[in-house]
Amino acid sequence: MSWGGSKSTDRILMHLAEIGAGRCTITDDVVVAETDPDMSQVLVGLLVLHEDLSYASRQRTEAETAMRIVAEERERLLEDRRRAVEARDQFLAVAAHELRTPLTTLSLLADRLMAMQGSIRVADSSAAEIQRQHLARLKRQVERLSALVVEMLDVSRITRGQLDLVPAPVDLRDVVHEVLDRFDLEIMRHDVTVKVDAPSPVRGTWDAAHIDQVVTNLVSNALKYGAGQPIEVSVRAETSHAVIVVRDHGIGIPDDEQTKIFGPFTRAVAAKHHEGLGLGLWVAHQIVQASGGRIKVDSRPQKGSTFTVELPL
Amino acid sequence: MSTRVRRHAGFSMMRVSRGNVELEQRAYGPEATREECVAIAERVSVIDERILFLRELPIQSPFSVNLMFDRIETLVGEWDRFAYVADLTEAKRPDAETRATLKARVLRISPRVTHVAVVVGDNLIMRAMARLFAYGMGLQSVNVHATRAEAFEEVRRVMGR
Amino acid sequence: MIIDDDDDLREALVDVMSAQGYDVAPFADARVALAALEEGPTPFLILLDLMMPGMSGWEFRAAQLANPKLLSIPVVVVTAGSMLTDGVHTLSDVEILRKPFDVSTLVTITARYAAAS
Questions:
Q1: Which of A193, A292, A313, B91 could form a disulfide with B56 if both were Cys (CB 3.0 to 4.6 A apart)?
Q2: Same-domain pairing of A118 and A234
Q3: Fold classified for C2-105
Q4: Cis bond leading into C100, ω under 30°?
């Protein structure tokens, strides 16, 4: 290396190259030992440059580490939350599951008591009447509890993605009739007329118990929000679909709520006036979707609501 | 050399009996005593109208830099322009962290600084530091001098004294 | 025949079925029930609980299906869950009555099997 450039320049270039590579062989001693005043000042400048670059690099590493720690902490919190939610859902599932047997027993016993009432000797007729009323209330409370438990279990199963449908050959008319039979007492209590339009069989392969749940939820809503007006339930088969329609002429649903009512935890009416977890339509929606069908609503405030369920044949 | 010191509004100074504290050759940090902090801050003084004088510590630290610049800001108050003389003859080369703090504090006051005169004696290393300082700190006008006398003269001339 | 280890529920079911006019043979233990089926008369329906200690409902059904004398007896599984399989056995060809159920539902289903026999 003999053409162009002085030894000083080469030396400076060497140090610059070092610094670019993140190293520096210049020390304070080297600077002090340097005899050329210009060179000593340049060396100081190069050393300071290297120090500033190293410092900046250290700062950046520290910032990155801090950010990584924050990210890890956040991950941990999210994981904790996920596990807590899962534990909660598990608990709900187990709780709901365990509640079912005692509820069944209660329900059967209440029914038996009511049936036996006629043959029980009581002090006087007013006591007998009171007893009859108590039993009726008992039965009602058991039904209410049962409905809540079923809803709770369905919800927890759905949120855990475990809605396992068991399709089997079924006639939807049977399902509808069974549901309405169960609502007999409540229909009488609401003093409501329920018209059923199901002239011919509607046979297909679906999970009867879950479709039952869907129809139950729709009928329950029709009774709750039907304002005592007649309710119409129809079942028919079309070319590719079976269609179940539940129609009431009650308070209806405002336009802006109609898209939301199938979502979880929404209720278009104040919660305290009506029972249940408010998830009936959401559960119904999940079941119908999982069955390959569609559910939709057509409603106008004060005019009533028409819920249509389509299931593939 | 007239050394009339003017008092200014908002001028607060802790009065501790002077000359008691010997500052050592070490980097000072938050553990410093009140007396030590005052001693450090008092290395900054007003030597004429809108002219400050700063005697840098042998070993500087981010803590000492902040102390001294807090003091500068207190002394200059509302002045929209001022100059200062920085005496680096006792000073050793500051480390990267101190330099970063120094840069931040200088940038804060630089819009109001008309001129800085740096005294380095015959210390070539500090002369180089002063030049780097001049280029890297966002100051409009910096000069390096061998003696205090030269520095004071220049600063007075610049400030029209 | 009713096979359920929950005493209260089993007794309530016995009461309901008796009131309907059926002869009821209740068992708390599925193994005892199996032995009784071997010896005695054939019921027109077995109401079977799944979660039982000793021999579970799944195991009972597997044993029933392995016995040519018993395999054609209809079974309605009464359960809180919907698990057709316990991981080892899978239930096939049984009607499922999910708890909680209504008396009327139980009565309707039972009547259907009684009529068919």
A1: B91
A2: no
A3: Rossmann fold (3.40.50)
A4: yes
As separate numbers, helices (DSSP H) first and strands (DSSP E) second, chain B gives: 5, 5
User: What is the CB neighbour count within 10 angstroms for residue A198?
Assistant: 17
Put simply, the answer to whether A45 touches B93 (Cβ < 8 Å) is: no
Contacts of B97 in chain A (CB under 8 A): 55
* Pairwise CA distance, residues C84 & A163, whole Å: 13
According to DSSP, residue A43 is labeled H
pLDDT in tens, B38-56: 999 999 999 999 999 999 9
Domain residues for A242? 168-312
A9 CA to chain B: closest CA distance, Å?
Answer: 18
Tell me, what's the ipTM? 0.81
Domain count, chain A: 2
Q: Chains with ≥3 Cβ pairs under 8 A against A?
A: B, C
- Asked whether the predicted pLDDT for residue B104 surpasses 80, the reply is yes
The rounded distance, in Å, linking the Cα atoms of A218 and A207 is 17
* pTM: predicted TM-score of the whole model, two decimal places: 0.50
Per-residue pLDDT of C8-48, as tens digits, reads: 899 999 999 998 999 999 999 999 999 999 998 999 999 99
Three-class SS string for A145-159? Answer: HHHHHHHHHHHHHHH
Higher pLDDT, C47 or A279: C47
Buried b (16+ CB within 10 A) or exposed e, A217-246: bbbbbbbbbbeeeebbbbbbbeeebbbbbb
Look at residues A304, A175, A188 and name the one whose alpha carbon lies nearest to residue A235.
Answer: A175
Distance CA C31, CA C5 (A): 12
Containing structural domain, residue B102: 34-158
Closest-CA residue of A relative to C5 is A101
Q: Kindly report the nearest CA distance between residue A295 and chain C, in angstroms.
A: 24
**C110 interaction partners in chain A (CB closer than 8 Å):** none
Q: What is the pLDDT of residue A147?
A: 75
